[in-house]
């Protein structure tokens, strides 16, 4: 996607959210529940470092998790709840949408791509990150382009936008490759290590995160081309405009006040500075109060 088209895409999304808010928290089922319980229930996908994962102490960590922590603090202040609790619920990529739709969790933090199909079941916050689907392969047999996987095996997580993107790209380019459907990113990396797959398809940043700091980091290589653009956003229940406004107010404050850069540097700094596209995403979504 050309840079100008991507920028216009983000502008359109920002304007879609720049709508007059209803009286603060007037008729929100989610906010009423949080107020009543004195707690906010937040789901996160495990194994999606550096965006969301469970650390050695059993605590939720990551870029998206820190965004949700900031949102919880902002909402607790607006609701006047002193010492509001935050309950973290680990989820799989396959169950995350249903967990939000059924209101098992109030908010989901991870690497969920905002799509129109998903929007029919759940709502989304402002965009929190922009990524692209890619394929990781062994450095000893690097694949620079999708065509290099002809006759080979590519692992991909089920229920992800990457699975759909990969299958469509293979069909459109008439590349015959075996697609191995898996449940977790750890499975994908294990298949690569065991040479039971020639590639592992996922979002570029999470693929980098999967090998960053590993002793075998130099043994893997990303393709030279991305297969898609993936706008990440936080999932929340549909038909709760006041809750969405509350979530977006907190995010816009982070973007406007510069707090987002501290969170980015903490989790993604080793990968380099934010791209021009990501900086534009933050800037455009710095909505005024």
Task: Provide an overview of this structure.
The structure is a single chain. This protein is α/β, with parallel strands linked by helices. It folds into 2 domains: 3-131 and 229-284, D-Maltodextrin-Binding Protein, domain 2 (3-Layer(aba) Sandwich); 133-222, 3-Layer(aba) Sandwich (D-Maltodextrin-Binding Protein, domain 2), CATH 3.40.190. It contains 11 helices and 12 strands. It has helices at 3-17, 29-37, 63-79, 96-101, 116-119, 161-172, 185-193, 204-211, 241-257, 259-268, 276-284, and strands spanning 39-45, 53-54, 60-61, 85-91, 107-109, 123-131, 133-138, 153-157, 178-182, 199-203, 220-222, 230-236. The protein has a 5-stranded mixed β-sheet with strand order 9-8-10-7-11, with helices on both faces. Strand 8, helix 6 (161-172) and strand 9 (178-182) form a beta-alpha-beta unit. Helix 1 runs parallel beside helix 11 and helix 3 crosses helix 9. The longest helix has 17 residues, at 63-79. The radius of gyration is 19 Å and the shape is elongated. The two termini are 32 Å apart.
């Amino acid at each position: 996607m050309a840079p100008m088209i991507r920028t216009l895409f983000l502008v359109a999304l920002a304007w879609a959210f720049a709508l007059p808010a209803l009286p603060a928290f007037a008729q929100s089922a989610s906010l009423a529940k949080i107020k009543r319980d004195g707690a906010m229930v937040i789901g996160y996908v495990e194994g999606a470092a550096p965006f969301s994962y469970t650390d050695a102490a059993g605590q939720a960590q990551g870029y998206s998790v820190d965004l949700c922590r900031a949102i919880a603090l902002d909402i607790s202040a607006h609701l006047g709840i002193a010492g509001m609790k935050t309950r973290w619920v680990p989820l799989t990529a396959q169950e995350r949408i249903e967990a939000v739709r059924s209101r098992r969790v109030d908010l989901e933090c991870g690497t969920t791509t905002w799509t129109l199909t998903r929007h029919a079941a759940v709502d989304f916050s402002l965009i929190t990150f922009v990524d692209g689907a890619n394929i990781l392969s062994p450095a000893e047999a690097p694949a620079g382009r999708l065509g290099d996987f002809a006759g080979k095996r590519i692992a991909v997580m089920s229920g992800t936008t990457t699975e759909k993107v990969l299958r469509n790209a293979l069909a459109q380019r008439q590349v015959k490759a075996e697609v191995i459907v898996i449940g977790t990113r750890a499975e994908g990396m294990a298949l690569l290590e065991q040479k039971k797959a020639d590639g592992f398809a996922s979002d570029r940043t999470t693929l980098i995160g999967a090998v960053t700091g590993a002793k075998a980091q130099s043994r893997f290589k990303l393709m030279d081309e991305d297969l898609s653009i993936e706008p990440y956003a936080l999932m929340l229940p549909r038909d709760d405009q006041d809750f969405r406004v509350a979530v977006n107010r907190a995010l816009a404050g982070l973007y406007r006040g510069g707090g987002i850069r501290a969170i980015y540097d903490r989790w993604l700094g080793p990968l380099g500075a934010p791209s021009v596209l990501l900086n534009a995403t933050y800037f455009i979504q710095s909505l005024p109060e």
